[in-house]
Amino acid sequence: MKPSFISLDWGTSSLRAVLVSEEGAIIEARSAPGGVMAVKDRQFQASLYAICSDWIENCGCPIVASGMIGSRQGWVEAPYLDCPATPATAAQALTTLRISERVDMHIVPGLRCGSKTTMYDVMRGEETQIWGADVSPDSVCVLPGTHSKWVFVDEHLRIKRFATYLTGELYGLLTKHGILGRLMEFGDSDREAFARGATLGLKHSAQASHVLFAARTAALMGEVHPAGLPDYLSGILIGVEVASALAAENVSGDQRIILIGDDDLCCRYEEVLQLAGLKSDRAADGATVQGHVRVAREAGILACESA
Amino acid sequence: MKPSFISLDWGTSSLRAVLVSEEGAIIEARSAPGGVMAVKDRQFQASLYAICSDWIENCGCPIVASGMIGSRQGWVEAPYLDCPATPATAAQALTTLRISERVDMHIVPGLRCGSKTTMYDVMRGEETQIWGADVSPDSVCVLPGTHSKWVFVDEHLRIKRFATYLTGELYGLLTKHGILGRLMEFGDSDREAFARGATLGLKHSAQASHVLFAARTAALMGEVHPAGLPDYLSGILIGVEVASALAAENVSGDQRIILIGDDDLCCRYEEVLQLAGLKSDRAADGATVQGHVRVAREAGILACESA
Question: ipTM, 2 decimals?
Fold first, then answer.
């Protein structure tokens, strides 16, 4: 297979590089822990060369990148693209950086929705995953993580709007630095405690900053064992997110939710969605690379499939 | 004035000792940073003697204490008293510890409400503040803090029930350890940013873990200056708390809210309550000591006023 471009999924905590063929297939994949936050003194070029200097020098292929690499803390700030957005509108809004005499890096813009009078929301990288995930028209995509995203795709497969939930960040802060974490023991997962937390969170989502306190009182009253507390809190937080999002977005019971992301997290969301009476499907792996292929085709970096 | 008992307000982060006269008046007050969390190797007696060994040895007065000192991490665990609760029921449920040949320390029980099937809620120390704050029947008391409390007092001045909101803890975690804090500059307060955040939080309280993200996007879009972000987030969090509590508890517009606590925090809550269309009053200072006086009278530690 002849290499055509390098796909970079360069997020906050990791860097994944994939050499992609002219047919859009994966020739080779590599990854490194060198996320944007781990790059010191803005040595982005060195981090990139450390993972794939051979590809850059030998093939001279262009690079298509997405994720936090295009943020203010990244290599170069790629302005946000407003919703509704598609691979075609993104292809017209690439931020291009010449990284060597022969090689350009094209950064896919992150997306923005909302307004000054309501609130803005932003994402970087998730838009590419959705474009590569082969979702159906009129889908609701959920991408769990530090900052979970609920993304609404319309009948023309455009990303219409989305909403971020701080679920993963709150879990990390509360367990690592918070008072709730003091009573916790970390180890094996406890599915029963998770389901109990999720049921509570789903029920009291309108009182998020109150219901979180159950992770303290349930421990004080001996209702949840210290080893079950981390999953109990995880359940509460995901329950709160799911019920809040369903209420705010008017998601109906017959709409299928598409989960995109890490396996363990997707399992948790699957379970909570089920408790809320909703069905969900998992997107195929490798969505980011396929998203880059779609944007690269629209931008003419990669020849069209029919060509 | 003749000393009659020592009032101890012994919380997580500070210890306040007051020598109280037979008439219930303050003879002398002292404070130390030696909160329960600062006491090493369970040296509670040494911490207590460091602040008032002279009172203990010279007067031989009993001690009445409340706060986290009665928690599992405190000196001795004082079992929770279930709601509805009054100074009289608390006086019958004191946990007494002999600390010297002549001196007993009586710990006021914390309160518990809720149930296994809903969720439990607990407090330690706030009950004593409320009993000393001279509140009117059928009041709603709000005690802002790390774990804010909304406390409902019935027509017989009993504490009927209450709810905890993690507002202060979330603010601390998000600003000190979270991603939102990275864009912030800390310094003078910014009342306009606070009011904007509060308006947003009040409006979107049912989506707490989403609306918090506005403290990131407003910064990214240049809507709020880095120096205004801490107050913007503070406004969002207090707005979320106030609107959630009002919705959950059916608080009507003609009900007055009584604010008890730290001056700066009470000002913030006053403003947010006003934005929500509610009036509030401040409780007088020194509520804890007066609460101890009431419990001590009911327990016969201090003679009744009429005696």
Answer: 0.94
